[in-house]
């Protein structure tokens, strides 16, 4: 989809190469993370894709078309671009910001309005509430969601993302990363994503391109980079605590336990038997309309076999998404003082649960797999 062939960038003859003979192939539908220290050439590499920076020599292809043969304006209109701080125009409404590229492409008003609503809903922002607001009325996380929506407005096949979540606090950043991965699962865009954060690269990337002084040092999957760093520079960039880093690689959806459901009117003994049969310690309780009311623990059902489920019902509390990493789930458990956390893909649903024991087992199993391979 995106291919660099012997690409060089020098800002002037006296300078060293900002990008030095880069050869890189990013496949369709993949997220490629460009990672490295400041000045390594990662941002220059990304900006050469939409010709915000012109390469000195070599060729860059998008879908087998040499970008040197494409008009720069047409090229940029066909590529989504998200930057840190969103770059939203403060004098425009949210809807007007999202509509910018479709208007430039000559879309009619009805199509633009429908697209604005569709994208805001995709970003879990109610169009009726947010479409007519201005950027100053939104939180940092909400503005970043709008920035992503604007980049997706004309449905571009390629998106460039320049440290889009870097200015956000860790909790908001983690949630937006999860949301973006959810959106990417639906849309399958080809994405080039610049970051200086190894944890973000491991979590977000299908492939990671590690750069140093303009050169590509290693290009591989997160698992391969963690287990087989190309050299001492990559090993140092990854850092220690291999088990913790591996928790960034494993998602909650990979290890969650499915839970049975039971009606609130059922007897505690039935809940107890269902948990025994399925080998779980919790059961989700719903009303007759299948709305989730909470959950019941095995030990409570065992101690109170004659009680109603309503009497021993517990609140679900905060949940994480299936795309949340085990490291983030562990951090949230610690902050809440809990030994387990529920997984929810959509509001009003529960996909399963992860316990502290599940986290430890997943990491231990993964480390044993790496030992077997090495």
From TrEMBL:
The protein's predominant localisation is: membrane
> How is this protein situated with respect to the membrane?
Peripheral membrane protein
Q: What does the record list as GO biological process? A: amino acid transport; glycine betaine transport
| Domain ABC transporter: residue ranges | 2-238
Q: Which InterPro entries does the record associate with it?
A: AAA+_ATPase, ABC_transporter-like_ATP-bd, ABC_transporter-like_CS, CBS_dom, CBS_dom_sf, Gly-betaine_transp_ATP-bd, P-loop_NTPase
Key words of the record: ATP-binding, CBS domain, Cell inner membrane, Cell membrane, Membrane, Nucleotide-binding, Repeat, Transport
State which Enzyme Commission number(s) the record gives: 7.6.2.9
Its domain of life reads Bacteria
Cellular localisation: Cell inner membrane
Gene Ontology annotations for the cellular component aspect, listed alphabetically: plasma membrane
* UniProt enzyme class: translocase
Record keyword Transport present:
yes
Where are its TM segments located?
A: none
The CBS domain sits at 313-370
Give this protein's Gene Ontology molecular function annotations. ABC-type quaternary ammonium compound transporting activity; ATP binding; ATP hydrolysis activity
Family per similarity comment:
Belongs to the ABC transporter superfamily.
Q: How does it assemble?
A: The complex is probably composed of two ATP-binding proteins, two transmembrane proteins and a solute-binding protein.
Its protein name is Quaternary amine transport ATP-binding protein
Q: Which gene encodes it?
A: yehX
């Amino acid at each position: 989809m995106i291919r660099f062939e012997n690409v060089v960038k020098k800002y002037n003859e006296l300078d060293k190469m900002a990008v030095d003979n880069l050869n890189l192939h990013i496949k369709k539908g993949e997220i490629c993370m460009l990672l490295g220290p400041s000045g390594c050439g990662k941002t220059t590499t990304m900006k050469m894709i939409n010709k915000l920076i012109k390469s000195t020599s070599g060729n860059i292809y998008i879908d087998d078309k040499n970008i040197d043969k494409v008009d720069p304006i047409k090229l940029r209109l066909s590529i989504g671009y998200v930057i840190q701080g969103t770059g939203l125009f403060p004098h425009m409404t949210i809807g007007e910001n999202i509509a910018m590229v479709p208007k430039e492409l000559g879309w009619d008003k009805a199509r633009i309005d429908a697209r604005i609503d569709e994208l805001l809903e995709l970003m879990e922002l109610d169009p009726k509430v947010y479409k007519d607001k201005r950027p100053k009325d939104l939180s940092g996380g909400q503005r970043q969601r709008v920035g992503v929506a604007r980049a997706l407005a004309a449905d571009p096949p390629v998106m460039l993302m320049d440290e889009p979540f870097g200015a956000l606090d860790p909790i908001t950043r983690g949630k937006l990363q999860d949301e973006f991965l959810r959106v990417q699962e639906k849309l399958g865009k080809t994405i080039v994503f610049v970051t200086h954060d190894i944890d973000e690269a491991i979590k977000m990337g299908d492939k990671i391109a590690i750069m140093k002084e303009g050169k590509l040092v290693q290009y591989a999957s997160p698992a391969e980079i963690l287990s087989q760093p190309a050299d001492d520079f990559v090993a140092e960039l990854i850092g220690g605590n291999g088990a913790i880093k591996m928790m960034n690689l494993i998602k909650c959806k990979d290890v969650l336990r499915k839970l049975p459901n039971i009606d609130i009117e059922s007897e505690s003994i039935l809940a107890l038997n269902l948990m025994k049969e399925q080998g779980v310690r919790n059961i989700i309780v719903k009303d007759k309309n299948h709305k989730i009311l909470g959950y019941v623990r095995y030990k409570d059902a065992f101690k109170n076999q004659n009680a109603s489920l309503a009497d021993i019902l517990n609140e679900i509390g905060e949940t994480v998404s299936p795309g949340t990493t085990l490291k983030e789930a562990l951090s949230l458990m610690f902050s809440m003082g809990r030994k387990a956390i529920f997984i929810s893909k959509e509001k009003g649903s529960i996909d399963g649960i992860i316990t502290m024991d599940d986290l430890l087992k997943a990491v231990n199993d993964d480390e044993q797999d790496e030992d077997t391979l090495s």
